[in-house]
Amino acid sequence: MRLRRTVVLALSAGAAAMPSRRVDAAPTEPGTLVNPLVTTEACENCHLFGNPAPMAMDPPFSPFRTWQGTMMANAARDPVFWAGVAVADADAPGQTSLCVRCHAPRAFLDGDGDITSIDQLTNEQRAGVECELCHRSMEDLEAEVGNARYTIDDVVVDTNVPRRGPWDFTDGNDPPPHSWIHDPFIGTSRLCGNCHDVSTPAERVDDAGVGLGVPFNEQRTYSEWLGSAYAAPGDGFRSCQDCHMPAVDDMAACTAHQNLQSHPTGGRRHDLVGANRFMVSLLQQEYGSNGANEISDQFFETTLDRYDEFLATAASLELTAPREVDLTQGLAGIDIRVTNNTGHKLPSGYAEGRVMWLEVVAEYAGEVVYSSGAWDQTRGMQQDAQLHTYEALAEDYADGTQLHLLRNNHWIVDSRIPPLGLVADLETDPVGDRYTLQGDGTWPNFDDVSYAFPAAPQVADATPGDPDPDLLQLTVRLRYVINTAEYIEFLGDNGGTAGEHVAQLFDLAGGATPETLAEQTVAIAITAFGTSAGSSSTGDASTSDGSGATTAADTSGTATTGASAGTSTGGGSTSTTGSSSSSDGGAAEGGGGGGCGCTSAPGPVGWGAWGLVGLVVARRRRRR
After folding, report:
1. Last residue of a domain, which of 217, 252, 272?
2. Helix pair angle (496-509, 277-287), 10° resolution
């Protein structure tokens, strides 16, 4: 273990303007910091403040307020994390320190990297990815990015270790009460990559079980960005911070500078949101004002508001559908393009229990005629032959065991949508045959999907005396659930006390609520019914081999909508850049598959087709 030296420099607190380097810089090991991380409570004293008067109506941007309710701040409180640690520790005792190193860095640096339960953390160690972990991190080009190989500055300037950041306090105003270093490293994606590229000790194997000579690439969010068009210098460059920590021009630095109302070097909001909105709401129940009261509800509410804005930026939908439909012939020609607008795969990160999918529902007179991937609060995700999911599934190749992180060594499939311009690389390539490399050697950042449904002759005209056209409302949603019912059931059965706790939390909440990342609705004129009298019925949710679905309608016309979901009447093509809405629902795991298929003979929607994961939710409720 390398010992670190504390060097005291006789410099003014405001004099350090360039990053300092130590000859012994290396990923910081447990017990080596002579100057421990300052607690977040100390940072709160100066970095929790209201917006300056000219910005009073804008979203809050003080660092502490926007950070405290995030998953970053609560990484060490996340109950799903601790349940996963319990499973990993049972599979590979003593090998979970990497998990703690990322989620509870103070505990790791204190020498407590071997803990496997939240009950073993001190109050200070529950702060998660906290202020000084980032603001004392320094770039070490000799250290490999990933697996939380962060290097923490331990050199004292004047009376304390400088905080690193974008600020330059050379404007003639009073400097902060601590020493500081103007260091651009904190604004780079490489900093984020320290924890957002993760490899496990297992060797990755190919589809034949042959070792590939590389560790299993559990997640590669940073590498996905690094191989994308967003990492290339130029007008299209976007760092992780550009999306997850939006810039605020001329913002106040801290309480001491608040009365100045601005600072010429600007700053960034510490929004730090992704797609795990549901867990933030659970954490609020556990630790908010009505729970353990460790964190004020105002912080959670600030973060939840940011999710509502952020989720709508992740993807775009373009929908092309017929202008007319003869229900005695069926409905074909439904073409959808899903475009990934993020700088990494969509979805990205830890793959266990995460699935994004297309939900396609056609309704007439308030009844469902056709559907694929429809979501229900109790039953979960409809399992049908046209179900189109985006997910990464891993296994232990030797016996096919899944959901055991430290046993995973083989990717069964990775159908997540690549980011724009992603170059071919073993570490980040999709797995399976869904995507094909383009002519320029990059993966497409979009996915094209087609749907077709069979005749529904039993659907009756609900308004036979009305001369106005009857309309079939076709709605397509891109949906995402971050913790499926299957995964939570697995944690409940295999994660010990922590697993039982997380299963109870999800059960009481009715399961995870899926997010709607993008949504589009098209109205299709019905030209013919199978009958003009009697009650209408619905299409069958089960599917067959794709035969017998035709339509005489054309698919011409193109229109584009704005950022919110819209409706087009008369067919054609519409697109949307996303929707921040979510709907009620329990968690469920989607199956694989996709492409074009047709439903079997129409009839009432069969709940048996919703699959095992829907039954998982019901079984847990009976257990409660």
Report:
1. 272
2. 100
